[in-house]
Amino acid sequence: MADKPSRALVLYGDGLAQFIDPSHTHIHSLASKAACGFLSLPNAPPSESEDERIIREFANLLDACEAYRDMSVEKSALLPTISQRFMGMKAAIITNSPCLKSFGSKLGFTVFQFSDLSGNDGSLSGKSVDFVTSELLKLLGFQEGQTIETSQFDFVLVHIGAGERTNGERGSDIISDAEYVNALVGGVMNTAQPGSEIGSRLHLSLVMSYGDIREISANLSVLASEDEIISEFSMLIPRQSYTMKGEKPRNDVRHHCPMLIAQWQHAVTRKDMAKTFSFKDFKENGGNGVIPADRFMHEVAFKLWKAPKYGA
Question: Can you tell which superkingdom this protein's organism belongs to (predicted)?
Fold first, then answer.
């Protein structure tokens, strides 16, 4: 644990996990330094629209499922904000998704879109990556290699949806979105070098989801295969903790296509044996295993000294 509260930057590639390839060297470099694992999600409701999926998975990531269920109910206005839930946490989200702008505001986030950071048309082009990276770190009180004691925000989440254009329309240029995330990771890692003032205070999380999984045919199950289980002990395998909530089993757990997550903060997070940001490497070598997506926010809040203990 750091001797001062961290400040968190979360890069969330919504639906981009299957588009990560060997050319995304910054993402793989982060995985080789980070604590890696999976965030499990519940099964999708039948006939779920893409906007509904985006909000539901985002709500799970922030442990805000009650707010998602009550979206059209008047009592939803009485739900606690993220600041009320996490000891005055100041949080922001950057997204070009119209549905997440509305939902994030409802949760108490300050909402920006990319054009607010880029100072021009908000284009997700490589030319603006360094500038956007600098602006993101400024929001957290990191500027010119120094840490400002009073920051505008404690927690900043950057949402980049697959194929999502800057005007809110979804296009086909998904690959460039993955490359943009790769460039952002490179910019942040270059700034937060080990031993630097920023490196000791910045808690970085990279989260990648598979989005709409109905057309994904690959075997992406976190369950152990029959070949991995010694038959003599098959009846002794305990129920995994991610399938439980307190003392009760979670009734709706999706064991396949989880979110992939790598978390890094110099001298604070553990380093495991994963070398690449991939499902296979995380399953074989990741140190964090599988945790429910709704515990992610609590873990990060603990690093920010905004939760009494991990998992609270």
Answer: Eukaryota
